[in-house]
Amino acid sequence: MSENLIIVAAGSGKRMGAALPKQFLQLAGKPILVHTMEKFLKHNSEIKITVVLNEEYVQFWDELSRTLNLKIVHHVVSGGAERFHSVKNGLDSILANDGVVAIHDAVRPLVSLKTIETCFNIARERGNAVPVIHPADSLRIASENGSSAVERSKYRLVQTPQCFEINVLRRAFEQPYQSSFTDDASVLEAMGERINLVEGNRENIKITDPSDLRMAEALIQD
Ligand code: C5P
Question: Are the CB atoms for 129 and 30 separated by under 8 Å?
Fold first, then answer.
């Protein structure tokens, strides 16, 4: 069965404070997005890659790919207002009617091969797989009256790639958008599906601000 990958890279990256969206910033001599694509190709050199970009950056990426002489086969589609709409555009562009699709944040180049493989395998066996890690810090819930401690062992931090049987995910994305849809698992869950959690890797950080980029520079050298 074929493996498909949708890399979502249509965010504006405002938190980074850089001129370019963070997926195009250099990490160890290459754009973050290139590292992310190469990691999945290491897992499966035949994986079909769709990259979802903000419309304003489609031409920029085309030119950058030529400058870099990028040989990675992929197709590009335009994103939407929220991550949900970007994933939906990516899904609509895939022709496959069976197999598993992974949705991955472009800004997580440090996902491990083990995490990718586990997610695909469990999704094939059980319909979906979502990588998580245990929080290392204590957690508190904030309210208008202050805050109170919560039981850390009950919580998980959610990463990507989130992998799904493609047809089930397509049905989930027919639902109208809700602001609670911050990832793909939340979209599937709203349709009544049970989510299978698998172990992610702690280095699989979402590069969001300049300190994350410095951390990623250190980790990618390992
Ligand atoms: O900012 P946020 O945490 O939602 O970003 C997660 C991922 O979703 C990023 O890779 C970002 O580029 C992508 N995204 C997108 N389309 C949007 C918003 C975010 O593809 N409209």
Answer: no
